[in-house]
Amino acid sequence: MSIDPTSLTNQAPIIEDIEKSSTRMVCQAVLDFAPIAQQQFSLAKDLAGTVGEDVTRDAMESMGLSKVPTARLIGKIDYKRAAYYFDPNYWIRQALFVDSKAERGAATTATIQISQTSLRVRMMQRGTAIDEPGQLDAVLTVGNDLYLVTTVFVKYHYRVNENGENELLAIFVICLPNGMLQSAYNPDAANTIWSVGRQAPSLGEDFRVRISFGRLKAAANWRVQRINTFPN
Fold it and tell me: What is the mean pLDDT of the chain?
């Protein structure tokens, strides 16, 4: 049978299963391309972000998803696919968004834009409670059909070595909960999966936030996966 995504508001286990399965699929796709990613990063110089985007797109295209051929998704995401998700007991239309982050520094967070999540961002910032609505819908309408939104991020964690080359240290796959799971993952500012992002409102920059790997793993360990192919 088919499932209407809007009926899942009170059926969190189904959303969790779909997101967990999607995370496994993205992990396998990226793992298959990890050697290529490592090689390309070493050659990239100042183009680490572009390399990450290219590797993620190539990895996802290799998986051969059950695409909806007539639907096109729009958004600030590297890989976007309208697909059919099949379970032994049901099928559902899925809007799968997979974005890449190539970042140096700490391997404990990943920066995202507010346009890349359907969750509200609730956290404390300088003693003030923040409640910023995500700009991505939990369920997308494309044409006459409804699609459950699934957002996954691939973080390429790297450093610049003594030779000035980019050295890929690890790849993280992070699945953000759909906005319908807000109460389970980020009910209020005191119970959050976020940390302060890098943006300068005074310069007109859009709101950004960091996903805290530790906080998200504490809520659901499987939502943050590390591909341990590279030296620490």
Answer: 91
